[in-house]
Design brief:
The chain has about 180 residues and is mainly alpha-helical. Helices cover about 60% and strands about 5% of the residues. Strand 1 and strand 2 form a beta hairpin.
Length: about 180
C-alpha cells in the first residue's frame, strides 16, 4: 500500500503517490536551480508546471487515477532534463551533460537523408560538409560508404527527446 497526496500543479489538482511526489519535487527544485536568478523565473517555472500538468492529463490523471512515478518519468522525458533550462551559469548537472555530450546520435535538424553524417560530424567535432564529402568520395571510388551509411542509419539512434536535441545543439555550438 502506498501513501497518496493531493497536489496543485499549475492550478490543477492531482492525486499523486508519495514516490512520484518526491521525484517531481526534486525535479522542479533542480529546474529552479538550473534556471538561476533571472527576472522571468516564476513565469518559466509556471510554464513548466503547466506542461507537466498537460502531460499528466493526457495520461489520464484527471480521471481519479493516481499519478505514479512512471507517469512523472515519462513527463520529464517529454519536457526535458533540468539542464535544458539552464542559462549557462550553473553547473548543477554539468557532469551528467558532459557524459552525454559525446553520445553518437543522428542529427535530424541538419540532415540530407537521415542525419548520419551530421551526427557523426557532431560526435567527432568535424565539419558536416567534410564528412559528407568523404561519404560521396568513398561511394564513388570505393563503394564502402553506402553499406556503412545504411548500417549507421539502422543502428545510430535518432535524437528524439527535447534534452537530446538540446545536447545536439550544444555540441553544434561548441564546434
Amino acid at each position: 500500500m502506498k501513501c497518496t497526496l493531493n497536489i496543485n500543479l499549475a492550478g490543477i489538482a492531482f492525486v499523486i503517490d508519495n514516490d512520484a511526489y518526491n521525484f517531481l519535487k526534486l525535479y522542479l527544485e533542480n529546474v529552479e536551480k538550473c534556471i538561476g536568478d533571472i527576472s522571468d523565473k516564476k513565469e518559466i517555472l509556471l510554464d513548466i508546471e503547466s506542461r507537466l500538468a498537460e502531460i499528466f492529463i493526457s495520461q489520464g490523471a484527471d480521471k481519479v487515477r493516481v499519478v505514479a512515478i512512471d507517469n512523472v518519468k515519462k513527463a520529464i522525458e517529454v519536457v526535458g532534463e533540468p539542464e535544458v533550462f539552464g542559462n549557462g551559469s550553473t553547473s548543477y548537472y554539468k557532469s551528467k551533460s558532459e557524459v552525454y555530450s559525446r553520445r553518437l546520435m543522428r542529427d535530424t535538424k541538419d540532415c540530407v537523408i537521415s542525419g548520419v553524417c551530421s551526427g557523426v560530424a557532431l560526435y567527432s567535432g568535424v565539419n558536416t560538409s567534410l564528412i559528407r564529402a568523404f561519404v560521396i568520395f568513398f561511394a564513388i571510388f570505393g563503394g564502402t560508404s553506402i553499406p556503412l551509411y545504411i548500417i549507421g542509419w539502422i543502428f545510430i539512434p535518432k535524437a528524439r527527446t527535447i534534452s537530446e536535441m538540446s545536447l545536439m545543439d550544444k555540441m553544434r555550438d561548441a564546434r
